[in-house]
Specification:
The chain has 574 residues and is α/β, with parallel strands linked by helices. It is 38% helix and 18% strand. Strand 19, helix 13 and strand 20 form a beta-alpha-beta unit.
Length: 574
């Protein structure tokens, strides 16, 4: 069997555009003599469509699009994800062949945790679908179906499936590709089946789909793997019927089949024969793309997330406020890699508290990145605000209010540039600052996309050094990396005047925010009690700010937004 995995980048709601992408891939696989091609979960609509699925007109349009796609499927079997209404709505896989939809499988396990809300939209499927293609039996599953250690994979295997296919939209976090593939290795071995996993790729708001589609044999060996963070058509020759020998030798399967209380209903559908293959035709040389190292994965995910957010939302250019600090420098450098230097505008907005060193570094950064650089002095604007407020602030000391005015003036100027030129404002704050609220609402938090929203400060430094080492030059001036972090909103200010040291803080943040460890557990784990006390208090107070932050790339297992849902009005304290 010549199997193709179409790792594509759909756009949510762009039914016609997604259909064109699918049609182009169908033409490619037909030219390569493939027997079966897989497309990702909800490929017709893009994933996740969210509340678009509550609109009957959208669901009807998606089904019409699917039928039009099926009409063009000839000489091959295609499995395509779409939402299917049949008395209720299902997350479905359509089996297309001979110009028609031959069968429809409904996803059985609906994830409703983390970033997933599928029970809000879909009913649970019951019947299994087993395809017979030229004597080979193929079991159809969708994403979460295979994350379960038992059915439906075990039921399909016991019903005779030699190849289990899994169409998916599996979101990325650092390390997910290894975790996911290890799961598929286990499923292949446990069920004595070949496994083919076809993932989506691309950015959708804060979610990243990393691709890394793969094919494994019944012993869990990876036969082929697509690269991550890019579209790919992975084509591989497989012999699923080779599993028969192993199954004859493994008597445990018979006991499992015998001990089942009831066998679930299975729809067996004959959908075609394998293409005639000349004896002299060579087998395709399989491609196993390597997994990327951690920092390279982070870079690729951030750049893909930004590029797709810009492209899919109809922007051309972005604007970044560059202060001479490391967060804005890394944001600008990643933006230039993602979009090209001609589409990135760097704006420095110094105040009386900006040092000559940071002003010079902001200019050097713009030169190094070869992008448009502008400097706008804000002192006069700040003074106008201070003067207007002076009668109302009479008798009160200068405090954080005046510091935040500077940040908010910068936010106003950035948004004015955005309005005038149509540029997307990319905010530069990181996860450490957002966690503890060390950010100004309507100031440095202003923007349409927060690229580093899920990147801890310690990782900001690691990524900046990595970019410099990888390039063999210094896109980010070394002086920016070496300088102690400062907001420069008052004289001689350093971040560590207000926060614990970032290496200590980030360890507490990871444990409290991502692992949900309590204050007592953190102290018992050996964290500095003073750091824990300060960090937890700041995190709990800052939820109202995080709710108003722009979306940003999700890199870690638990990110602010979809993953972590804490009430703003909340008196519970650990």
């Amino acid at each position: 069997m010549r199997l193709a995995l179409a790792q594509i980048n759909p756009i949510v709601g762009d039914l016609d555009g997604n259909a064109r992408v699918i049609a182009a891939r169908l033409a490619e696989v037909a030219a390569q003599g493939c027997d079966l091609v897989l497309f990702p979960e909800l490929a017709v609509t893009g994933y996740p469509p969210e509340d678009l699925l509550l609109r009957p007109g959208f669901v009807r349009a998606a089904e019409r699009t699917l039928r039009a796609i099926a009409a063009d499927v000839e000489g091959i079997v295609a499995i395509v994800g779409f939402p299917h209404f049949e008395n209720d709505l299902y997350n479905a896989a359509a089996v297309c062949a001979d110009g028609d939809v031959k069968a429809i499988y409904h996803k059985r396990f609906l994830p409703n945790y983390g970033v997933f809300d599928e029970e809000r939209y879909f009913a649970r499927g019951e019947e299994l679908v087993l395809l017979e293609i030229g004597g080979t039996l193929v079991g159809v599953t969708i994403c979460e179906d295979m994350w379960q250690p038992g059915p439906p994979a075990t039921d399909l295997a016991l019903a005779g499936a030699e190849l289990l296919v899994n169409i998916s939209a599996s979101p990325f976090h650092v390390g997910k590709e290894v975790e996911r593939e290890e799961m598929f290795v286990t499923r292949a071995r446990d069920n004595a089946c070949f496994v083919a996993f076809c993932n989506a790729v691309g950015g959708q708001d804060e979610l990243i789909f990393d691709g890394h589609s793969c094919v494994l044999d019944d012993d869990g060996e990876v036969l082929a793997r697509a690269p991550g963070f890019e579209e790919c058509l992975l084509v591989v020759d497989v012999e699923p019927r080779a599993v028969i020998g192993r199954r004859l030798r493994d008597v445990r399967r018979r006991a499992l089949a015998r001990d089942r209380e009831t066998a679930p209903p299975v729809q067996v559908v004959h959908v075609g024969d394998l293409r005639p293959q000349a004896a002299s035709e060579p087998r395709l040389e399989p491609v196993v793309a390597p997994f990327e190292p951690e920092l390279e994965q982070m870079r690729l995910a951030l750049e893909l997330g930004l590029a797709d957010y810009v492209r899919k939302n109809g922007f051309d250019d972005v604007v970044v406020s560059v202060s001479g600090g490391i967060d804005s420098a890394l944001t600008a450098a990643l933006a230039v890699e993602a979009l090209g230097s001609d589409r990135v505008h760097c704006v420095s907005m110094p105040s009386r508290y900006s040092s000559e060193a940071t002003r010079a570094d902001a200019r050097r950064l713009g030169e190094s990145l070869d992008c448009d650089f502008r400097e706008i002095e804000i002192e006069g604007v700040v003074e106008a605000f201070v003067s207007a407020l002076a009668p109302h602030f009479e008798g009160r000391d200068v405090d954080l209010t005046e510091e935040n005015l500077q940040a908010r003036v910068r936010g106003v100027l950035l948004m004015a540039l955005s309005n005038k030129f149509g540029w997307l404002v990319v905010a530069t704050g990181n996860k450490s600052e957002l966690s503890v609220g060390y950010a100004t609402l309507y100031g440095d938090m202003a923007g349409g996309f927060a690229l580093l929203k899920d990147v801890f400060k310690t990782d900001v430094f690691r990524l900046a050094r990595y970019l410099n080492e990888r390039d063999g030059r210094q896109p980010i001036p070394q002086s920016i990396i070496d300088r102690a972090p400062s907001a420069e909103l008052r004289d001689n200010q350093l971040d560590e005047d207000s926060l614990p040291p970032y290496p200590e803080l980030d360890r507490v943040l990871e444990a409290y925010v991502e692992l949900d460890r309590s204050r007592e557990e953190l102290s018992a784990d050996g964290f500095d009690p003073d750091v824990v006390e300060r960090a937890v208090a700041m995190i709990d107070r800052a939820e109202y700010k995080r709710r108003q932050a722009p979306p940003g790339v999700r890199l870690r297992p638990k990110a602010f937004g979809r993953d972590r849902r804490t009430p703003i009005t909340n008196r519970w304290r650990d």
